[in-house]
Amino acid sequence: MVETVIRVEGMSCGGCVNSVTAALKSLPGVTDANVSLDSAQARVQYDPATVSEQQLREAVEDAGFDAPV
Fold first, then answer.
1. Between β-strands 2-7 and 41-46, what pairing exists: parallel, antiparallel or unpaired?
2. d(C-alpha 8, C-alpha 38), whole Å
3. Sign of the C-alpha dihedral, residues 25, 7, 13, 58?
4. DSSP letter at 50?
5. 8 burial class (0-12, 13-18, 19+ CB within 10 angstroms)?
6. Distance CA 62, CA 1 (A)
7. Distance of CA 20 to CAs 6, 47, Å?
8. Residue 14's pLDDT is what?
9. Which sign does the torsion angle of CA 13, 17, 22, 27 carry?
10. In what residue span(s) does the HMA domain sit (predicted)?
11. Which in 10, 26, 35, 61 has the greatest CB count within 10 A?
12. What are phi and psi of 54, to 5 degrees?
């Protein structure tokens, strides 16, 4: 397992946090995702053999938020 931190822009409430968390946890290979509104980031534990960091960023963007590199 690998852990990465992804910056998440555009979150403004707990519902946003829930949306990003659900989007990340729905990906195969993601074992945990902790999203913080205060720090505007997601700390994700995942299996790099199953899912890439780029796919994690795409999931955040598909949920309607920005995940700049």
1. antiparallel
2. 11
3. negative
4. T
5. buried
6. 24
7. 11, 18
8. 96
9. positive
10. 2-68
11. 35
12. -60, -40
